[in-house]
Every structure is written in C-alpha cells, then in structure tokens.
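Each letter names a residue; the fold follows as tokens. Both lines appear below:
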Amino acid sequence: MKTLAVGNIGKYVFPIILASILGACDSNSKTNIVERDPVPNPTPVIPTPEPGLSESGARLLVTKPGHHDHIVVFDLAEKEAIADLHVESVVTGLYATTNKRYAIAVQGGDNGVVNFIDSGVEWEDHGGHGHLYLDDPQVLGLELVGARPAHVTIHADKTVIFFDGIEGSVPAEIHLMTDTGIAAGTVLATHHDSIRQHGAAQAWGDYLVSTVRLPEEPGPTQILVSERDGDHFHAETLFDQPEYACPQLHGSAQNSGYIAFGCGDGVLFVEAHGDHFHAHKITNSTRISSIFSDINSINFVGAGRNSSTDPISLFAINPLLETIAPIAYDKTPRAYAFAKDGELFLILDTEGGLTAFDTEAWTVIGTRLQVTAATEASGQTFRLTVSGNGKTAYVADVGAQEIRVVDIHDWKLDADKTISLDFAPGLILWVGSTEEEDGHNHH
C-alpha cells in the first residue's frame, strides 16, 4: 500500500479582493489519497445462471447496523447475497454515480474515510443493442481520508465530495472526481479552503459552484463560482451582494438548468449563461435545509422547518416561474426519491407508507401505499432507494428484517421480490444496470 500525502496541490488561485475570504491553504489542511490493493469479495458467491436464463445487472447494497463497516451486495434477480464487502469504518452515507456502476461509501468523523465500490456491472452501449458485463463487486483501491466528509453531490460524470474540516484546526476541502478517475484511482481537482464550514458544492462542466463561509459567520452564507484549471480552480464570480445572501445555508441540488441552495429565508439559484453565471433568489417564510432534484424535472423539492419542534414542511420549487408552493402532506417524511424520469416524487414516511406525487400538478398519484409491516420503532429508520430506470422502489423494513419491493408503474407491493435478511437493514442503495443482453430495460 502506498500513501500519497497531498498538501497544497490544487490550491485555488484568487484575485486579491477575495483573499480575505478564501485565502491560501492552512498548513494543517491535508487529505491523504490512499492507493491500496482493491478489496474483492473474499468469498465470491455469484451463482452460475442456468442455461437459457439472462443474467441481471441489478444489485442492491445494504449495510448492517452494528456492523456498518460491512456492506452486503445482493443480486436482485436471484434475491441472493453475492458479496460481503468490508470498508474502513461506520458507513454514514451511500451514493451512486450517474451511471450507477460505482458507489461512494462515506464514513464521517474527524478522521473520516471515503471508499469507492465497483458494483461489478458494466453496460457497453452499441446503439440499438449492447453488452452486459458482470463481475464480482469490490472495494476499489482509491480511498480519501480527511476531516468530516459530509455532502456528496453527483451530476453527469462528476462527483463532488465535501470535507467540512474541524473548527480552528482543519479547513474544509472539496474533491472533484470523475467516473473514469474513480476507476483509475485519481482525483481530478481539489480545493483547500481557509476555514472550516459545513458547506456544499456542485460541479457544472468545468466549473465548481461552492459555498463560502465568512470568518464572522457560524456557517456559509455566500456562493462562489470557480473554473477548473488542471488539478485546481480559479475563482470567477463571488455572489456577495446583499440580495444573494443565504443565511443558514444548507443543502444543494441541480437539474438541467439550475443549481439550488437551501437558505433560512428561501432558495438561492445559480444559472449558467455560456461562460458566466447569474444568480437569483426566491424567498420563503420557512427555512429550506434539504433540496432534491432530477435532471428531467424543472421542479425542485425543498424540505425544512424553522425549529426542531416544528413538523417538516415540503415545497415544490420552480426556478423558472420563481415560485415556492407548499406540498400537501400530513405525515412525517423519512426518505425521498424521484422516479420515472422525474415524473414522480416519492415520499416514504415514518409509518412505512409510500406516497407518489406528480411533479407537474403536485397531486397524489393513486393512494398512500403501506409498505412496511409496522411503523418505525425507537431506534429504527426506514430507507428508500429506486432502480436506475425509476420503475421500482426498494424499502428497508428494519423491524421485519426485509427489503420490500414496490412496482411503481402498477403501484403495488411485489411480494415475490421481497428479500428476507438475517439482520436489520441499514442504508440501502441500488446500483448496476437495468439493461440486459436482449437490449430491453428491466427491473
């Protein structure tokens, strides 16, 4: 195993006017990029398909509570565990790249780790047909080690990983990755901030749109657009005017035209116009601290509340019309996902019910579907993930120790596809491909 200590490479180059805001890298700011041998499944158990049966590329990652450093990989067609992967620490977040081949396993904390998992599924597209290649899942050799990895955002072939840092000692860092780089074990570009912040960042082509925390503020309140130059960035535009102030900034998302950031008093949008960016803000009386989007939908969904004793409110946000409208929902939301190419927005509640909203009219499609056997008990958390084609939803029923499957098109539980576990499921994530050798789209 070889460890490369990366200190001041990838430093932003800033105009003097921005130096007091985002200065040179602190001497304590360092991320280790660890190159280690890939960690394959120690005892591969991928079944040999019977003659005449097509192999499925649909797989599900499931973490074990109490053993969160283990990630079990299931073949969804066979409903069988095909790998038990081991990462460095407790998994606090799972994210899939756009092509669904790779998963990012975040392990938060002062000595945080980010591992990358190859699902073992590759779809080679040849236009009217293609080829599906299946291999053992494995933990790749690339590993990022730093202070408090938190937000991960993904757009097109780029993944952005935000390390918050530690107050007074370790500044924040941003790492920009590509799918090709993940496979090759390389980071495309890095930004070392001058201050700790629980921030967010989004990649937009060769640009990075990220948050800025002023020294006198407890958290980020501004947005900076920077352009990549090799392995580092040059600052281009700082939105520091009062009309763009974003107090209590938290959460970000993007669709095909806009990048959105949640604020204590609304949502701040950044929009690209060729080689420059514009910003505008929509105000709201309720803080929005989480934002969700789909590349095929103009609408964002915001979630938030003004105090911890308030119920969570949901909002449909249209940046083109500059509107924020409440979504009529009377349950306590637990998890969210877009489905069917952005046509639907799914909400899983703490009682185990699933509700689907049409993302144009924001009306409920069908009725609330009870998915789990019972409501969440103390210490339990239901989870939700959706297949790559948006046609199937998977719910982690912690109490029943099952993965329950919902046919979104027919809006019903598909009991035949339920996966029984010998442990209570934690985080879940769909990875792989819905394509098969016959050129059709499944699962």
Observations:
- The chain has one helix and 38 strands.
- The two ends are 39 Å apart (CA to CA).
- The longest helix spans residues 179-184.
- The longest strand covers residues 67-75.
